[in-house]
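INFO batch 0412 | record 1 of 1 | parsing
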Amino acid sequence: MKTIYYYQTPCSLDTIIENSQDVDVIIVSSIHFGVFKNEPYIHLNDNFPTSPLFDKVWEDLQKLYYDGVTVMCMVGGAGGAYEKLFSDFDTYYPLLRDFLKCKNLITGIDLDIEENVKIEDVTKLINCLVKDFGEDFTITMAPVSDALLNDSPSGFSSINYKDLFESELGEHISWFNVQAYGCFNFDTYDKIIKNGYPPEKIVFGMIAGDFLDDNFHVALDVIKNIVDKYPKMNGCDVWELCNSPPDVNDSGQWAKLIKNINYNKRPFLGIWGP
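INFO prediction complete | emitting tokens
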């Protein structure tokens, strides 16, 4: 059961560092591309990744990395990235590659594609990432739930995820961070699995705002019920860290409570020896 935080809005990571044993992955968000003073550039939200604004962020993430937490970086999202990236791949991809290489604590990438792009371009991007960073580099994707409930392009992008997953490229996708925003319930997860996606490839994502009104126990019950039926469920993520339920002043509670769910114990089905 992975616990994964999306981390976009700068905020203190103290409670995460204090409870790092409960945290598996932090995904720094979000990388975009643009042109500044007639020069192509890469930016983390609204600033260069090397901006002093992020010095404390990288320092804290380095501590978590040393504690065994996987640090990844998300590209895209609502702010876009892929139309610009694919419009001049030979210019913009090296910027992404070099940024990832200069931050040795980043050991994975999350592709949140919310634009109309060609599957051939996505294939090229993933193949380049595998070539440049190796098979151990984590590559995830972040489709909305509808995109995995249907076998045709849906949601915010033009990608048919079923075709992508069942292609040779599928072996390079470590898991899907499903955006189950507004539909974080057992039925949504169940239908995704019944549509042909293995539980170990599905991380179920909630948006914090759905569970900030003293109802986080509902989310915990959903997770418990899913794991009772699908013990190989990969994990859960939350958008985003700064207002993680149930207490926005203690983000570490989110992961701790999920890790401490009292999942049903399954009976031993073997034969006892003499």
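INFO post-check: The first strand starts at residue 2 and ends at 7.
INFO record closed
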